[in-house]
User: Fold this.
Amino acid sequence: MIKRFRFVLVNDLKAYLAGGTFIKIHLSYLIILSLPLIIIWPTTPSLSFQAPQLLLVLSYSQIVILTYLGGRLAVGISLDKEISFDNWLRYTPLTPQEIALGKWGGIFLIVLFILFSSSPLLVLAYSMEGATIESALKVYFLIPIPIITFINLGLFFRFMLGSPTISSFILNMLTILFFLGLFLTRTTEVELFYLNPCFLISSLVLSFLPLLISLRKLKKIKRGFSL
Assistant:
């Protein structure tokens, strides 16, 4: 299975990296994250639970941007060299699980690369604020959780609905509800604030359920192609 799904993963990675789309997304992301270093830091010289600090602003900016990006890539964007899920399913012997795993892995690796490419900005922000390594690691280990959650949801809508427009609309609504949930379940820990681990992990676990349901449907479609 590992040897087979990598064909989907490599194809998608090549499609994402081809052309200037990835470079534009990456540069825009780094520019957006750099703005708080220029604007917010001089006005927040000390840690404050009531006034968001620089490191928290950067962390939440990462979560918002990368969560949206992961979900958007999952529901599908126009890429010249990408082989569609339907074509993989129809014309190759790959199973739905292998195709889904390859597409999931391609999206996650792209988003993970963008996430860690901004780590110097986070290190700079944490050093400016005088935060500890422990608090930095707490936040950084939580950031991939909502990203994975929305990749799962994006793939579910892509597999079940097919239409990128409708899938994107529903995913955008869920994104708003998700961040509203983060706000309502915020913790009292200064280092985490809105990043409630229980809410994040619960959302992650629940996001796998619709993905598994969609895979069951795709198995039936695959059997139909084989007849």
